[in-house]
Design a protein that fits this description.
With 154 residues, this protein is an alpha+beta fold. The protein is built from 3 helices and 4 strands, in the order ααβαβββ. The longest helix is centred in the N-terminal third of the chain and has 17 residues. The structure holds iron/sulfur cluster.
């Protein structure tokens, strides 16, 4: 049963901390970490990475799995509202939901398939201020630091 889709019903018992649930959760986090590349260890934005915090809380070991095709995207600093580092993205789609359902802007979407899947703005162009403007609402919803506030100008 999918927990996010199954309606609550009378008499239902929901296990959230059973050993089976915790073990499954650890494996899922480990799989997500496999796809979460980038400069997390040295990057100042790491403190925004909820995925790493969760992995530490659950005592997840370093990933044993190898990603099929490592993805690398150069960090993008051209937008005054959002810094994008898609190498850290785990394709959770929270930013797409925040952009469409809360900001009601529909700027972000998922494009391509399989290992090429990617969160894109517009038609997979650069995240320019003409495309993604003045909101930054997606940033707190990103659990990995793939979207963050740009560093203040010196
Ligand atoms: S919220 Fe962050 S990690 Fe999730 S899909 Fe968007 S950019 Fe990727």
């Amino acid at each position: 049963m999918a927990a996010c889709y199954t309606p609550v019903s009378k008499g239902m018992v929901v296990q959230t901390r059973s050993s089976r649930v915790l073990e499954t959760r650890k494996i899922i986090i480990e799989l997500l970490l496999t796809a979460h590349t980038g400069s997390c260890v040295t990057d100042l934005n790491t403190n925004q990475c909820a995925l790493h915090k969760l992995a530490a809380e659950l005592e997840v070991s370093p990933p044993r799995f190898q990603v099929g095709e490592p993805r690398y995207y150069p960090p993008e600093d051209d937008n005054p509202f959002v810094r994008r580092d898609l190498s850290k993205c785990i394709l959770c789609r929270r930013c797409v939901g925040a952009c469409a359902e809360i900001a009601r802007k529909h700027v972000l979407s998922v494009a391509y398939r399989g290992f090429q899947s990617k969160i894109v703005a517009d038609l997979d162009g650069p995240l320019k201020k003409e495309v993604c403007k003045d909101c930054g609402l997606c940033i707190p919803y990103c659990p990995t630091g793939a979207l963050s506030k740009p560093a203040p100008m010196a």
